[in-house]
Predict the structure.
Amino acid sequence: MNRTIIAIITLALNLQTGHAEQPFEPINKAAIDARDGMARLLINGRPKVPMVFFFNTRQNTNYVERFQDPQVRLAAEAGVHIYSFLMCGEDFSKGWDKIDYSATEKILDDFIRVDPKAVFILRYSTGPTPSWLEWSSIPKDQLWRYADGSTSSSGCLSLASDYYWDLSDRGTAAMIRHFEGSIYGGRILAYHIGGPNIEMFADEYREKGPDVSIANTVRFRAWLKANYPDDSSLQRAWGKPDVTLTSAEVPRGEPGRFPMHMEIGAAPIKVFYNLPGEQAWVDYSSYVSELAADRVIRWAEMVRRETAGNKLSVFCYGYTSELIGSFGGHGAIQRVIEHPAIDILMSPIPYVGRTSGEPAGFMSAVDSVAAHGKLWLNEDDIHTHLVSKEDVPKWLPDATFGVQARDSRETLNLLDRNFAQLVMHRSASWWMDLAGAGAFNGPEPWVMLRERMTLYEENLKNPLPFLPEVAVLFDSESKYYVKSDWDAFYWGLMDLRNKCGQSGVSVGWYTMKDFISGVVPPCKAYLFANAYHLEKDQVEAIRKRLDAEKTTALWVYAPGFMGTGGPDLEQVKYLTGIKLAIRDGEQGSNGEGVLNDLSWGGGGKGTNGFLVLSPRFFVDDPSAQPLGRYKSDGLVSTARTTNGLHQSIYLGDMGLSAELLGRLFTGAGAHRWTCGGEVVLTDSRFLAVHSGNAGLKRIELPSGITAQAITGKIEKQVGQVIYAPFEAGDTRWFRLKPASW
């Protein structure tokens, strides 16, 4: 479709609908800026609400008129003109200089036909594809291979393959040059690149384990050479006198480890790799993350170079709290967010915690991403009531897609909750019709979105930093030391994230390194989610900051335990101020003192129905005040003390409750808006509350603050407490103002 035809269609549609909108303006410059702590999408120098509609054109290519066109029309009417889809059908059979992109251009034309103001994020998988001339001659040693001898079911080349890197980079650069130089160039906002797996985690690693191909083995050995000065240092680190830098192998899992699974039984779950005997797994986990980061950064630099810095790059990376296993490949998040060429990072909304009443927040340290001037994008692919069930493909069961919303009210409230997360955490989203089956094919979601976008626009016009009262700190590098592929990651990260989101307190999500460097703003309390591996200089820096702020630190499970030379209980004591000892056994605690009516602990198959862990820590310190004891043997699991100039609270369990966290955060001085497990999202301008239960909700406002209902109503107010009626699953918005206004 040439420019003249596009212009005629635009004019005709404007005349037909009576729109007084300005004609389409090509994108000359797209950027992410950071103003007053808020990362903003700029198009031609003007801030735009970063909302995108994604239609899975590859899933249902015959459903353009039935599902694509009407949803694009609804998006445009709501003021959403940014679209994304999976590029497909690139034909390389005539050579690298004559690649045929007509299939993708046909899709672009279909969007533009309905929305003449359409602009795009092109989602490009870097190959290989069967149309590569080199397809039949791909060296077998470059293919992804597993310990059982099988290759990737998708025919992937190893991410470590130089052969793959060279060809994929050639194809990716050619793609960018083609579209930048085409009639569509002014419509391209960003390039979303990934491969061989678009989400940048190791292909089928959860099902089959590491890639043991020759290509990956060679590159892993090169990584070892860069990190160990000689054979003897590697031998000491691995505890293997015969290993050398030229003979080291990618580690294989013991029988029964894969597919990764919950460990059910009375035997204790081995949480950490046994060092030095399993140091190879720690090293491999670090290597895989660095490898994925290398690719992401290289592609980001390519987008900058090929577009003269005028278009954006997008990557799936940083699934910190959702990606199970130590070697998923997303551990180098700090390096990625600090790189100047990175613009946008993204993931789906967490699969654990997206149903009604749950937080559905972020897989990553989203507030660290924003603090570094990058934009985080949540892929909102929830299973709305509008999805045509007969058109959902068999590969997309409810277990993956999520339980379908029962009706319009549930869909709207889930989407409303999800959008509130974006507003408060200064992030972006695309509504994704994952099945290509009409997930947003109705006017109600778009009408609501248009209303909520006006709230986002207020923050764009007058940016204010998001300043939570509690910071949850994730340490991606500590994940490398965790052997428990499922249980420790589920209870220690996913469940903990969700429970913090239901604690009734304003919570931010950051990286450990950003806390140490001072990027994280001062907070009433800091929850160290998985600070398992710390170097001595990190321990000193953490203590120094905590003392300087005279704040509260909450330590979960094994803070600082995996030290520089291996397990180190003395380092734990120095870090927390609390002496711990080890006795393997069942977790799950009853509270005492200020927590005396509470119970908590992650589920399992022990005597009391809780996880059986090795190591399990208990407080062996008479100077610390007990706050909880293990049900199984009465040993102290939870305690607090004064450590230097700050308060220190140790929590030995995984699977903490929202009420437990809410009380501890409040005790640290944080304001608790609700106490019923509601999801509370707030900044200095808005408050959104999502509840899975019906009733008159008690919401306590901070001193000197008033609230006005944006949605729903305030039934009554007593002092600083407002009461608002909720039906089950409701999301309600309030505007916050100083009482003096």
Q: What stands out?
A: The radius of gyration is 26 Å. The chain has three domains: 3-461, 524-667, 691-738. Residues 3-461 form a domain with the TIM Barrel fold (CATH 3.20.20.80). Confidence is low (pLDDT under 50) at residues 1-20.
